[in-house]
Amino acid sequence: MYEYTRRIMRSVENHESFKLKRNHHSVVAEIFDLAGLRDAIRDAPDEALLFHLDGRNDYAAWIGAVIGSRTLQEAVGQVDRSMGAERARQELVDTLDVGLKVLKEMERTETALVY
Question: pTM of the predicted model, to two decimals?
């Protein structure tokens, strides 16, 4: 379990980063980990936030495919564009906050068990 938690909490390589965009051409931020995703979503312009919820939830897809957390992917995947920017932003930030809190506690507990 320790390796699983470390994998999810890691910073990804440049080629795996999440590019937060306003549209297909304008990158607002480049994100390398879950905390960075939460912070970028919190601060993103509405158009960038909603751009990644248009058609499919890019946040959930990245969390599943790159970060490797199916549970967090499913939770974030419940957020959609129809909620509007304000509610979608709050749901995403809250979900990522809870996920990060749980993962940090798991990491802390697992680290204590290793030593």
Answer: 0.89
